[in-house]
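Input (structure):
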């Protein structure tokens, strides 16, 4: 796992060095820079595979191709054998990076479709005078880019790209508003005007001579969208194939020349990954974090699962005081605003895991592939609610819900009721982000003090809803969670939290073979009645204790409602943005007095504030 950066055109003194310094945490083991033919490539390396001969930037022996690469290609040995059979001669011992060079020479722009792994890479084709960039299918590894006068910039992280003197720096008010609409900033846009995220499953080609830039999709996650009756026969068939393919995905991700472990929350996803890994590892290390707040704590389930597998278990507890100490460092290290508060426990988990291992497998992707989130359960009821509940009755119910006692417990009753009714107040085209976001469109207008077109604000969600309008509600929601929420919130959070501590995170659920199989499973086997992840739970019963399989979903939550009532979260002016701070402080006062729960908004506001201060300091 590494950091990459580069640009075309004139090379300002110290520019690539500054860019690489901003991502040094991603690759603390080595640094390399190559300048040739008006292209500058930089790389910081976290050595995982082929420690001795895998250094980067890496070039072909004839000098025609050069690459910088962040990620792991799990089928690199298989691809190497195939390429060698076609006459390619490798210089390294078993580097997956060199497979990219020979793979590009063999397959050109079609090369990414041959890869199984996670990646972001930039390849300089010196013969054709082109840059070829690619990002893995689900966007596990980040990749930012921007054009500049006479050239092109790219980097693993936004702050590295901003270290170049020609990079744009103006904050986008629209994308700041999207943070409060979604709780994250959906791609391909970013918080900076003129900077873009290359979406997962896309490649980009930049013509160095003409300046022409072209993005193209090489893969797309497409859940099947058909409903099928659940029978004993088809259920057993799906379960057997599910475990077989997931076991193969886990085994592939145990490839490393360094120590590795498992992130174990005690939920079904991470527990299943741990159980399958135990088939292939003699002494397994597992890591978890717990909370002093009981409604958020999952540590007893993690300990139960670790004891069941006889793993060497490591655990740390997180409380308010610990969080306050960690908060400035973690929020200051965020690359782009992401208001998922579980960044704190994830970063803590990564910090103490990195003292023992350099690679950790986790359960990310299980909820998105198998309809695991609470909103999935509300989708079918929402259709009936819209049909039979008149608008005046709905308004009355929503008003009545505001009188419920406000709780700061994890996913409390008042929180669920108010969230559900709020979502039902808006069109289905953007109901999901309204359910999940810190503010609704009217509140965002108050904050921004300007009229906002909701269709523009939620444009990414609207496009998905309209494109897949003929599919059932569960499948449409699966597209939203996999394409937007997972990529730009969950995977972004995990990448930043782990890489700030020089730790590589791997996600077996997102193996391409397994994910394509999961896409064929009917939605009726994912959400069966009110049971989320039904087929996954049935498949796991032979591998996990019943207490793990049957436990209610808790999620890697944070006591945000409680913590954001402190003075630390009173909204302040944000550099580069014009907000209605007086109104924001009124919300904080209501929250502090437990008249309403604005914890998500206050957390997002603090995240944006700290990020803007960091950018102002580094760019000013």
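Output (sequence):
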């Amino acid at each position: 796992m590494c950091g990459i950066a580069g640009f075309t055109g004139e090379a300002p003194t110290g520019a690539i060095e500054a860019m690489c310094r901003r991502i040094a945490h991603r690759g603390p083991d080595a640094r390399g820079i190559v300048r040739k033919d008006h292209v500058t490539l930089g790389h910081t390396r976290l050595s995982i595979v082929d420690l001795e001969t895998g250094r980067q930037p890496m070039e072909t022996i004839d000098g025609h191709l050069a690459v910088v690469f962040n990620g792991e290609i799990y089928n690199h040995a298989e691809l190497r054998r195939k390429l060698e059979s076609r006459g390619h001669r490798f210089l390294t011992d078993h580097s997956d990076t060199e497979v990219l060079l020979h793979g590009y020479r063999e397959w050109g722009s079609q090369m990414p479709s041959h890869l199984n792994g996670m990646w972001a890479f930039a390849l300089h084709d010196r013969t054709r005078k082109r840059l070829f960039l690619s990002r893995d299918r689900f966007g596990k590894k980040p990749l930012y880019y921007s054009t500049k006068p006479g050239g092109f910039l790219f980097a693993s992280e936004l702050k590295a790209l901003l270290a170049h003197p020609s990079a744009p720096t103006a904050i986008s008010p629209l994308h700041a508003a999207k943070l409060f609409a979604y709780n994250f900033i959906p791609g391909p846009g970013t918080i900076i005007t003129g900077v873009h995220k290359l979406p997962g499953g896309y490649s980009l080609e930049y013509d160095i001579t003409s300046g022409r830039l072209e993005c193209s999709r090489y893969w797309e996650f497409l859940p099947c969208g058909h409903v099928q009756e659940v029978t004993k026969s088809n259920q057993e068939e799906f379960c057997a194939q599910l475990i077989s393919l997931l076991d193969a995905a886990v085994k592939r991700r145990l490839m490393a020349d360094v120590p590795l472990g498992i992130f174990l929350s005690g939920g079904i996803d991470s527990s299943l990954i741990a159980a399958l890994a135990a088939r292939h590892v003699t002494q397994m290390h597992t890591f978890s974090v717990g909370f002093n707040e009981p409604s958020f704590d999952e540590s007893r389930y993690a300990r139960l699962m670790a004891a069941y597998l006889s793993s060497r278990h490591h655990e740390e507890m997180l409380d308010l005081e610990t969080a306050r100490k960690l908060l400035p460092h973690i929020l200051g290290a965020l690359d782009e605003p992401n208001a998922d508060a579980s960044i704190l426990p994830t970063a803590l988990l990564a910090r103490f895991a990195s003292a023992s291992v350099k690679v950790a497998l986790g359960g990310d992707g299980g909820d998105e592939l198998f309809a695991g989130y609470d909103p999935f359960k509300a989708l079918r009821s929402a259709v009936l609610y819209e049909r039979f509940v008149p608008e005046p009755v709905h308004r009355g119910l929503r008003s009545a819900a505001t009188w419920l006692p406000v709780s700061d417990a994890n996913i409390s009753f008042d929180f669920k009721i108010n969230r559900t009714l709020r979502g039902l107040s808006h069109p289905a085209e953007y109901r999901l982000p309204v359910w999940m976001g810190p503010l609704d469109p009217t509140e965002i207008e108050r904050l921004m003090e300007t009229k906002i077109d909701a269709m523009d604000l939620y444009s990414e969600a609207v496009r998905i809803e309209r494109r897949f309008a003929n599919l059932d509600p569960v499948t449409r929601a699966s597209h939203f969670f996999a394409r937007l929420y997972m990529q730009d919130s969950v995977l972004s959070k995990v990448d930043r939290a782990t890489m700030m501590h020089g730790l590589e995170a791997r996600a077996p659920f997102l193996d391409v073979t397994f994910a394509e199989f999961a896409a064929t499973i009917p939605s009726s086997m994912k959400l069966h009645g009110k049971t989320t992840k039904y087929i996954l739970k049935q498949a796991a019963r032979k591998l996990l204790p019943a207490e793990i399989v049957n436990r209610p979903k808790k999620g890697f939550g944070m006591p945000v409602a409680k913590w954001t009532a402190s003075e630390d979260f009173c909204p302040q002016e944000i550099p580069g943005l014009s907000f209605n701070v007086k109104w924001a402080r009124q919300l904080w006062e209501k929250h502090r007095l437990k008249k309403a729960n604005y914890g998500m908004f206050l957390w997002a506001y603090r995240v944006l504030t700290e990020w803007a201060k960091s950018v102002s300091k580094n760019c000013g």
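Notes: The CA atoms of residues 7 and 153 lie 4 Å apart. The chain is about 45% helix and 15% strand.
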